[in-house]
Amino acid sequence: MRYLRSCVLALLSFVWLVPVATAADRVPGDRRLPPQVLGYVSVRNVPELKADWKKTALGQLSQEKELAEFWQEVEKQLDNVSGIIQSKIGVGLNDILALPQGEVAVAVVQLPGKKLSVAVFLDAGENEQTVTKLLAKGTEAAEEHGVKRSTEEFEGIELVIHTRPKVEDDDTKKDGTPEQIAYFRKDGNLIASSDVDTLKSIITRWDGKHEQTFAETDIYRQLVAACRDEQNDNPPAVTWFIDPIGLVKGVLTSDPRANTPQMTLMLTMLPTLGIDKFKAVGGTVDLATGDYDTITRTLVYLDSPPTGVINLFQFPAVDHTPPKWIPAQSDAYFGLNWDLGKAVNTVESLVDMFQGAGAFRKLLDQVADREEFGKLHPKKDLLDHLSGRLHIVSDLADPKNLESQRILVAAELKNAAAMKKTLAVISKLEGFPGKVRKFQGETVIELSGFGGGDAETMMGFCVSRDYLMFASNVTLLEQVLRTDGDQDSLANLPAYQRLAKKFPAESSMISFERENTQLKAMYELLRSGEATRQFGESEAFSLDFSKLPEFDVIRKYLSPSASYMRPDKLGLLWIGFTLKSEAKDDN
Question: Global pTM?
Answer without folding.
Answer: 0.88
